[in-house]
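Journal club prep, notes for RB
We'll compare a predicted complex against what the paper describes. Inputs for the zinc ion case:
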Amino acid sequence: MIKSEAKCLCGAVKITAEEIDPMFTVCHCQSCRTWGGAPFFAVKCGTKVKIEGIDKVKMYESSSWASRGFCIECGTHLFYKLKESGEYNMPVGLFSSLKGLKMDIQYFSDVRPSYYCFSNETKEITTAEIMAFFASKM
Ligand SMILES: [Zn+2]
Ligand SMILES: [Zn+2]
């Protein structure tokens, strides 16, 4: 686990994450692609996250299990937060100096569009597997 800091483009929001997992994930779901215009590259940051400038953060509830946060001044995407656990997933690109990054899992691999593909060797998890996982927790 790595500790690192991040800032949005305008600097109104500063984030310190204490426990970043450098094994990052990619999500191909339509929500992530609509949100960012491309698949979502995210690092798991757990719950030990400090956010300065929280009054500039807007949360959008994108599903019944998670919300997405962004800076209301510059639009920088800040996090995907799971409701039940309070865990944060953050865009890997927010952190400028992370070491040891490795693409680990591709989520919603079955809905990955045909116009791109990554040559990285990763685990892949399908929509059905993800839905079964969340169904087991509800
Ligand atoms: Zn900003
Ligand atoms: Zn997604």
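Talking point for the session: The mean pLDDT is 95.
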